[in-house]
Amino acid sequence: MNPTAGQVAIELRRLADALDKEPDAPTARASIFFPCYYLGAESKNIFLHLAHILPRPLTKEITEADVISLIYESSALRINAYIDRNKVCTLKEPAKSAVWECEPLLSEADEAAFQ
Fold first, then answer.
1. Which of 5, 26, 49, 66 has the fewest CB atoms within 10 Å distance of its CB?
2. Which of 40, 45, 37 is nearest to 5 (CA)?
3. How far apart are CA 33 and CA 78, in angstroms?
4. Which residue, among 33, 10, 49, has the nearest Cα to 81 in the 3D structure?
């Protein structure tokens, strides 16, 4: 069963309380991930809810691996909610391989020298 936003908030408050015990202690920038790709039929709805409730501003990125990420970043924290594109989109036309036509840039002797 997936946690609720309230349950996550409770745990984050526990973390905040622990960090506040030594607020001047050096630390690394924290990262929080919300992976929404394995949540079954609820994946899309959970991702959309996160899109509405995460802090602003958000940046949207789509990777070459077809993962959609919503990212919040500050100097102390990075939050990334992500989902596979195929969970929220319908593929209308498969990608096509590029077809290139190039005039030779190097002679055969030049290319042989690469060996």
1. 26
2. 45
3. 8
4. 33
pLDDT at 33: 98
Question: Six-digit token pair at 40?
Answer: 């079954």
> Tokens 């055969």 label which residue?
108
The contacts of residue 70 (CB under 8 Å, 6+ apart) are 47, 50, 51, 54, 58, 59, 60, 80, 81, 82
Where on the phi/psi map is residue 66: left (φ > 0), alpha (ψ -120 to 50), or beta?
A: left
Residue with tokens 């989902």: 83
Average pLDDT on 48-77 reads 96
Amino acid at 101: E
Does the pTM of the predicted model rise above 0.85?
no
Report pLDDT digits (tens) over 81-111: 999 999 998 888 888 888 888 887 878 888 7
